[in-house]
Write a structure and sequence with these properties.
alpha+beta, RNaseH_sf, single chain, 11% strand, DUF4817, DUF4817 domain-containing protein, three-stranded antiparallel beta sheet, nucleic acid binding, 242 residues, two-stranded antiparallel sheet, 3 domains, Homeodomain-like_sf
Length: 242
Amino acid sequence: MSWTSEHRAFVVETYFKNADSISETQRLFRRHFGVSRHGKIPDRKTISLWVANFRETGSCLKRKSPGRPRHVRTPENVAAVRNAVTQSPRRSARKQASALGLSQRSLRRILHEDLKFHPYKMMLVQEMKDWPNRKKCFEVLLENVGPDDVVLASDEAHFHLSGCVNKQNFRYWAESNPRQKHERPLHSEHVTVWCAVSHLCVIGAYFFEENNETVTVNSQRYVHMLRSFLQPQLHQFGQSEV
């Protein structure tokens, strides 16, 4: 039963008025609040607790807990976490917590709430090989390109037509495993597309096909594309040389 402040005040007042008698307090409590013979009234332990609280604090209400002291997220621990993460930013939170003698929960709270740190994923990019020669090539190119010249950056890519399913994002809700499968061919059908871009425009897309079938790009087909497709496109912008 949840005792109200009125119940508590009556018990404490009655207790002191009746020579600290718990049994008399219980009898008068039953009469005052109209509690039946078998109804619930405060027991001896509860009455003693209310009286003790009143003597210590001047109130018969339940004392509020002061709360757990802040032992973990101290300025010293926050500084230690900052130094550890700064020195080893790739170390996992579990290993950082173990090395610092902290729980993972405390470490993560310090990282997020105190230091405002966020876990960023590594970006995967293509490896740049032979960088000195590439740099030299671009420097020579820039020296020989006039202000009115048009520089085209082009590339070709394969686009697969069979579709793609990301297993991490696909879920099938059922009582039992339906064993769903997504079949894909070993060598999926695809198209090869070429495109070029400059400060004037985007040229393309050009599909490397013969008789409506995708073909492998070789030097002969590439030269044919330059003459039959790219050169007419450049004529539209007053550029006649390829």
